[in-house]
TrEMBL record:
Cofactors, names only: FAD
Any one Gene Ontology cellular component term annotated for this protein: membrane
Any Pfam family matching the protein: Pyr_redox_2
Cross-referenced InterPro entries: FAD/NAD-bd_sf, FAD/NAD-binding_dom, NADH-Q_oxidoreductase
Entry's localization field: Membrane
Keyword Membrane part of the UniProt annotation: yes
Protein name as catalogued: Sulfide-quinone reductase
Keywords, in A-Z order: FAD, Flavoprotein, Membrane, Nucleotide-binding, Oxidoreductase, Quinone
Length: 428
C-alpha cells in the first residue's frame, strides 16, 4: 500500500488531496502537510483588503474537512524535503515517509529583491496572503480618512499581474462609493511591456480593453517599469523603452501602495539539485513529474514554467486557478497509473481561464493554449464577471468544505451555465 503525501493545502493542495483520495486504492493513505490550519481562497484577498470580505468568509478549517474524506493532515511547516530518503522533515524534527510526494507549496514572496518593498519592514502593502490583506485593510481604513495618491502594480520578475489590475480597479470602485475618488491620483506601475500583457503576451484585445478601463477610471500607468527603491511615501521607478534602455526616472509619491512581488520557490525545496530550477521552482515534465525524483510531482504556483516571451523587463507567466486544477487532475490520474504499475499518460491542459474582478464589473479571459499564437484568445469585460466571480468563490468554498472528489474543471462549464442563470434571475 502506498503513502501519498501532499505538501501545502492551498488552491492546488486541497483539491489535490480530494482527487487523489478518490482515485487512490482503498489501503493507500493520503496525508496533507500544511503550515497553516486553514485553507484560504486567495483570489478573494483583494476584497479582504478593502473590507468587502472578512478573513473568516474565505477560510476553511483543513483538518476536519479532510478527515471527513479519510485524509490525514499534519499541521506543521515542512522544513526540508529529502528526496533521496523519500522523507519530508517537519519543523519539529520528525520526518514523514512517502512513496509519492506532491509539492503544492505556492510561492515564497521575494519582497527582499526590491529595497523597501513589502509589509515586513518595507513601505508597500501586500494582498498575497490573507494576513497581509488584513493589514492592508487596516491601512485602508486610515487612508480613506485622509486620502492621497495611490501607487499600485507589479515589480520586475512578477508573474501574477491579474490581482494588481483587480486591486487597482477595486480600490477605484471603493473610493467612488465613498465619493472621495477625486482626492486620489492613481498610478499603475508594471514591469509588463504594455497594459494587458498579463505575462501572457496579451489575451484577445486585453491591451485595448484594459487601457480603456484604466482611462475610464483615471488610472495613469507606467509600463516597462523597474521599481528600484521604495521609501516611506515615495517610490523610485525607472521606465524603459522596448529595447530595455532606461528612458525616465520617476519618483512617485504615495499615501497607499500595493505592489505584487516576484515569486520564488519555498525554503523547504530551494536549492535541491535536480528538483528545482535556480529560482526554487519545481521542474516537471508534461506529466507534472520531476525527471530526477520520479515519485515527486508538483502542482500550482511552485512549478517551473518559462516566460511566454522575452520582455524588456522580466515578466513571469501567471499560474491561474483553472490551469492549477488541470495540473491536479492530471497528477491524480498519473499517480494512480503508477500505483497500477503503468506509466503516467495524463497531461494537464495548462489552459488559462480566468475571472478578474474590477469591483463593479470585471474581465474574463480564455487563452488556449497559453502560448500565442492560439486557437482561442478571448477577453471580455462586463458586470456579469463580477457576479460570476462571487458565485465561483461560493462554489469553491463549498467544495473545499464538503470535500469534492470530482475534477472541478470538468464541472465548470455546467456550473458556468448555472452562474449565467443566476445572473439572469438577479439582473446585473
Ligand atoms: P497557495 O494557494 O499559496 O497554497 C500553498 C500552500 O502551501 C499555502 O497554504 C502555504 O501555507 C503552504 N506551504 C507553503 N510552504 C509550506 C511548507 N514549507 N510547509 C507546509 N506548508 C507550506 N488565480 C486565478 O485563477 N484567479 C484569480 O482570481 C486569482 N487571484 C489571485 C489573487 C492573488 C492575490 C494572488 C496572489 C493569486 C491569485 N491567483 C488567481 C493565482 C493563483 O490561483 C493563486 O496564487 C493560488 O493561491 C495558487 O495556489 P497554490 O496552491 O499554488 O498556492
Ligand atoms: O480555480 C479557479 C479560480 O480560483 C483560483 C478562479 O479564480 C476565481 C477562476 O477564475 C478557476 C477555475 C477560475 C476560472 C473560473 C471560470 C468560470 C467560467 C468562466 C467562463 C468564461 C467564458 C467561457
Amino acid at each position: 500500500m502506498a503513502r501519498i503525501v501532499i505538501l501545502g493545502a492551498g488552491l492546488g493542495g486541497m483539491p489535490m488531496a480530494y482527487e487523489m483520495k478518490a482515485l487512490a486504492r482503498p489501503g493507500d493513505t493520503v496525508t496533507v502537510i500544511s503550515e497553516a490550519p486553514k485553507f484560504h481562497f486567495v483570489p478573494s484577498n483583494p476584497w479582504v483588503a478593502v473590507n468587502w470580505r472578512t478573513r473568516k468568509d474565505i477560510e476553511v478549517d483543513i483538518a476536519p474537512a479532510l478527515a471527513k474524506k479519510g485524509i490525514e493532515s499534519i499541521i506543521q511547516r515542512a522544513k526540508r524535503v529529502h528526496p533521496d530518503a523519500n522523507q519530508v522533515e517537519l519543523e519539529d524534527g520528525n520526518r514523514v515517509d512517502y512513496d509519492y510526494l506532491v509539492i503544492a507549496t505556492g510561492p515564497k514572496l521575494a519582497f527582499d529583491e526590491v529595497e523597501g518593498l513589502g509589509p515586513f519592514g518595507g513601505h508597500t502593502q501586500s494582498i498575497c496572503h490573507v494576513s497581509h490583506a488584513e493589514t492592508t485593510k487596516t491601512a485602508w481604513d486610515a487612508f480613506v480618512q485622509a486620502p492621497g495618491p495611490i501607487v499600485v502594480g507589479a515589480v520586475q520578475g512578477a508573474s501574477c499581474f491579474g490581482p494588481a489590475y483587480e486591486f487597482a480597479m477595486i480600490m477605484d470602485t471603493d473610493l467612488r462609493k465613498r465619493k472621495i475618488r477625486d482626492k486620489v491620483p492613481m498610478t499603475f506601475v508594471t514591469s509588463e511591456p504594455y497594459i494587458g500583457h498579463l505575462g501572457l503576451g496579451g489575451v484577445g484585445d486585453s491591451k485595448g480593453m484594459l487601457e480603456s478601463a484604466m482611462r475610464q477610471r483615471h488610472i495613469k500607468w507606467i509600463c516597462n517599469a523597474k521599481t528600484t527603491k521604495v521609501e516611506a511615501g515615495q517610490m523610485h521607478v525607472t521606465e524603459h523603452d522596448d529595447q530595455g534602455k532606461p528612458i525616465k526616472d520617476h519618483v512617485l509619491p504615495f499615501k497607499h501602495s500595493m505592489m505584487l512581488p516576484a515569486f520564488k520557490g519555498v525554503d523547504a525545496v530551494f536549492g535541491i539539485e535536480g528538483l528545482t530550477n535556480p529560482r526554487g521552482f519545481i521542474t516537471i515534465d508534461e506529466h507534472q513529474r520531476n525527471a530526477k525524483f520520479k515519485n515527486i510531482f508538483s502542482v500550482g504556483v511552485c512549478v517551473a514554467i518559462p516566460p511566454v516571451e522575452v520582455t524588456p523587463i522580466p515578466c513571469g507567466t501567471p499560474k491561474t486557478g483553472y490551469m492549477i486544477e488541470s495540473m491536479v487532475t492530471a497528477t491524480a490520474h498519473n499517480i494512480r497509473e503508477l500505483l497500477d504499475g503503468k506509466e503516467p499518460t495524463h497531461h494537464a491542459t495548462w489552459n488559462t481561464v480566468c475571472l478578474a474582478d474590477f469591483g463593479d464589473t470585471g474581465a474574463a479571459f480564455v487563452a488556449l493554449p497559453q502560448i500565442p499564437p492560439r486557437n482561442v484568445s478571448w477577453f471580455s469585460e462586463g458586470k456579469w464577471v463580477h457576479l460570476a466571480k462571487v458565485a465561483f468563490e461560493k462554489y469553491f468554498m463549498r467544495k473545499m468544505q464538503k470535500g469534492t472528489s470530482e475534477p472541478i474543471y470538468e464541472k465548470l462549464i455546467m456550473d458556468f451555465i448555472g452562474i449565467t442563470k443566476l445572473k439572469g434571475k438577479q439582473g446585473p
